[in-house]
Task: structure prediction
Amino acid sequence: MPLKARRWLALLAPALVLGAWSVLLAVVAWSAMPEDARAAVAPALETLVALAVLAWLIASALLARWTHQLFRDHVEAPARLQDHVRIRIGGQTREPLPREGAAEVRALAGVIDSLSSQRDQLRDDMAQQVREASRNVEQERRRLAALMAELQQSVVVCNLDGRILLYNNRARLQYQALAPQPALADGAGAIGLGRSIYAVFDPKLVAHALDTIRRRLDRGAANASAQFVTTTRSGQLLRVQVAAVRDEPAPGDDAAPAAAAAPLSGFVLLLENLTRDFEQQSLRDQLLHAMTEGSRSSLANLQAALEMLEFPDLEAPMRERFLAVVREESTAMSERVQQLAQTASKNLKTRWPMEDMLAADLVAVVARRIHAIEGLQVSNAPVDPDLWLRVESFSLMQALTYLAERLAQEFAVRRFTVRLAAEGPHAQLDLVWQGTAMSTETVMAWELDPIRIGGESTPLTVRDVVDRHGGAFWFERNRARHEAWFRILLPLGGASARDARRASEVPALSPEDNRPTFYDFDLFKASDMARDLQDRRLDDLSYTVFDTETTGLDPSKGDEIIQIGATRIVNGKLLHHEGFEQLVDPQRTVPVASTRIHGITPDMLHGQPDIRTVLGAFHAYAQDTVLVAHNAAFDMRFLQLKEASSGVVFDQPVLDTLLLSDLVHPQQESHGLEALAQRLGVQIVGRHTALADAIVTAEVFLKLVPLLADKGIHTLGQAREAAQKSRFARVQY
Result:
């Protein structure tokens, strides 16, 4: 029976018993009276009844107050203490237990606090010993992460089910280009721990490669690998090298199998995208073929025309016809050569590698190169030592050196300053000099002329270099200081690019979380993907925890989603680096009252994708996972109303932290996200952004799982069945 119902029963039962007892006594007394006594009492009977009722009310009120005090001190306080003790025992918080209720209950809370503190101290001591014992292992993991981060090749490690358990940043970037789903939310739906590699590759190809590796290992090969070339679902041509991961025996383990006979536990994929190389090779072959065939015909015509022109008695009209043939064929050959040169120049531009580089290093390189020109002097303005750029440094150095050399040759400029500073999402790289200015026509001509440095030339122009970096180029001057400069806008890179984007306020990540190599070796153990999800343990499943921001609270009357934020839980770990956050154009107005809550203005939504596009990307991100949300009925209603128009159906199981909270804390008055987070010791940062709320919900869910286990709820099916019995399960939108 719910606690509130028991409270009312405790308050009403004594009053009803007292009333029933009083009525019974009155009836017995009246029955025992003689007739003459009844006649004497009858005139005052109404007054006596009124006094009796008044006395009953007063006695009932006093009794109810006393009962309420007893119930609060001896029933409600122990019930609330029970909830807090479960949280404390589960390790979700170390806050002291509340001191409320009777003296005995308060004393019991103190004793439990003392015992919990002793247990926490023992746990801390054990954790410290475990940390010290595993320090070497963690060091090896960090070395591996650092090595993987520096690799220029895409590396993905999977278990035998094809679930990803390690990948580096290069693989993440390449995977975004390979995956068929839309590249929204910074490509969050492309790759992730615990996700299937078969979203990109045909499983039969990988199975065939693994069979080949097994056969080679069975023949005694110490190491074996296989490779295949395939076309992905997005139309990319890919070369994949497959290497085996084996269960190596522990040192000194005599019962372990020999290394050559060790079973496979997973595989490593080395990815190389051949699409651009194949296209360029095909284009070169076509150009060479066209050049060869066209030139052969032109040379034959030229040779024939020249032989005829050698005749001294050739008539003038015929001579003019053969001269026209020479001019026509030479022009055609010139055009073919020019086309070949333009194509080669275009290929040269598209092959530039863009890398992260410290801004201070780029300024130093440019200054040294200009200073190497005889007669020129260069100084460096101070540069932020933590500023990173995403550039191709050689072409930038060539462009600035070319501009400095032309200024020296045509305007006799001898002194330059190179300065660089961040401005919003870009960096401004300036080549500064004193005194001399120039016209806009001159600047445009220099921008479009091929770059020449000394006696060397290149088909590239300054505009080519700027366009390749997605930037801009212009000339400015300050008349008051007699100063002029060329300015190039460049993209930020590394940490600078992340800082320039206005990120939501989410919990800070540790340095290990920021490393662009992501791994979870415990996923080797989770290989049984064939079992029914309903029978899977909650701590074995993968989850997508999500939240939405909307124009209002009534999806049935036209309110729309304007932001979806989500994070993933894999193997019991919250993956901060695999978040999904995307604004949505609702194609309707956003009420001012809603903007005050989530801070999303109509200007922020202008140009964003519509809900159909975003739902497709979010569906790919949440594939093969259980959905989790707080008050999930609200968010799921928005998704369900878009099924017909978008064609996207979210048919995964759904868990609601609101209902789960009511299961584990039925005596608590509030089950809102903030109250729940505070109760479980979860720090709330950046509320009312979709991603921040999703992260808080995920941390709350992780703390609810062991509390559900204490109540005998271990599997997904048990959790869903129990949640349907909550009073909140009847809420509809």
